[in-house]
Amino acid sequence: MTDEKIKEILSNSKTIAMIGVSKDTSKTSTIVMKYMQEYGFKVIPVNPRSKGEKVLGEEFVGSLNEIKEKVDIVNVFRPSKEAEGFANETVQIKAKTLWLQLGIKCEKAKSITSRNNIEYIENRCTKMEYQKHFLKIRQAFPVLSN
What we know:
Blueprint: H1 3-11, E1 15-19, H2 28-38, E2 42-46, E3 54-55, E4 58-59, E5 73-76, H3 83-93, E6 97-100, H4 107-115, E7 119-121, H5 126-135
Parallel strand pairs: 1-2, 1-5, 5-6, 6-7
Antiparallel strand pairs: 3-4
């Protein structure tokens, strides 16, 4: 995936279904959710254990299939072994992009999305990519750059 394509995906996306978000606001997934919200994205938290509860003003859904609105990016914070199932769900809801966070890779998920004309990004952080392309910040923790 090229930097230009990632910038295009982020520019043309408005809604992110974030799988694996926690109610714990100190967790990485929740920090990324808050960051993306601050930059104008609608983020829908997906976590079956927290269904019906709220985090950062949004109600958790139990699965992608429960989302009633159009999803641009399915952003995954779950182990690589679960990515194939999320790829299938991404196809079902007709999302444009399956995005696997840092450390998450899955050849089967890549194959599924490719066959269905869905963009596939692996082993990258949405927050870090947004910072790099739109804020020209390359560090994960920009506070440390001074």
